[in-house]
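Chapter summary example.
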Amino acid sequence: MAPELHRELGGLPSAMGGSPGQAPGGLQTEYAFVLPRGFVDAAGTVHRDGVMRLATARDEITPQRDPRVRENESYLTVLLLSRVVTKLGSLTQVHTGVIEGLFASDLAFLQDLYRRINQEGHTAAAVTCPSCSHEFTVDVAGEQRLGES
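The structure predicted for these 149 residues follows.
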């Protein structure tokens, strides 16, 4: 698979800077990713490479008290992602305004990644090549380089 297609599928090859974080004992706690479109900041810079960490109980409980969530339950996603996305391009901070400014496809990508690493415990996804219809599995967090198993 070409690196461009791999990037479109959300992978971040290790050679491109993707090194997942691990806690003592070998538990992976951080996952590198590449957004399908990217966040465009006020200067027009596109930020695609990022890191998401595992959520804690506090990450899931604290936003429940936020009045924005009480007014609109969908805002819970924005608050959760702003807590667990620790890096996005060259931004110094990923806050709610950044998450609110994501394209819908990028928000859906991050929601899926969040669900995969926090509920399912993996980042594998089944995909089909649009050109040849070959079915295969990719790691959407990009832990492996192409061709490695």
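To summarize the output: The chain has one domain: 3-139.
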